[in-house]
M55 family metallopeptidase (Candidatus Fermentithermobacillus carboniphilus), 277 residues
Amino acid sequence: MKVYISVDMEGGTGVASAKHMEDAGYTRMCKLLTQEVNAAIAGAFEAGATEVLVNDAHGSMTNILIEDLDERAELISGSNKWLCQMEGIDETFDAVFFIGYHAHEGNEDAVLNHTIMGTAVTEIRRNGIVVGETAINAGLAGAYGVPVVLVAGDDILCAEAKRFLGDNIETVITKRAIDRYAARLLPPKRVQTLLKEAAKRALAKKDSIKPHVVEPPVEFQITTKLTSMAHMCCVFPVVERRGPKVIAVKGKDYVDSYKQLIGCLMIAKVAATGWIG
Ligand SMILES: [Zn+2]
């Protein structure tokens, strides 16, 4: 049994404010996050996993400490990956976990709520419905026929995950959101115990959890933070301009649409300040 784990950071316990991911706080979070991942890996192997692939999926994607990672797993580290937070996923996997995940921008007062690239994106709609990273990435796993069976993050993220993926998935609430920059946190050891147990339960019932399949055509409509971002994305003819800050892409299938979405976000990031090559 092969398990794939995508790991963001904002949803880990220990993160209530952006301050917790800066300077010494960031170094500490790398350690805490690696411990959360290890707890999920331990649960996976106890449940019968034979292979676990971890994909570092926050910021520069160089957060997880390989020297501290459970030696039975392997890690994809670094960025510039076509499938971004889901690099390495394919049809050979049996189940997916999302650890350290966060709610989409504008979902109540969720901790550090944003959608993929907070500096560039106000909102992403998939076939008309507002989505966050959980639904977007679950759709990518679904395109390969793999179900997301465990999601961990704050209480609002966990509700968001169940809304898209069904009540049957396992969730671990690592903290309760008070504001975008405040939360009531559970201590790491408690979260790790919860994660290990949830991982075991999730894999025991994986066959009863349906992959999150979005049939083509798949359209992503992106509302950018600045007009320059929407403008410059239209350098490629596949991108449609729908408003000063609104663009849309529609590929031949889910994976193709997703790649176009990620391409737009990379352009948008550069367009924020103008070309500085
Ligand atoms: Zn992140």
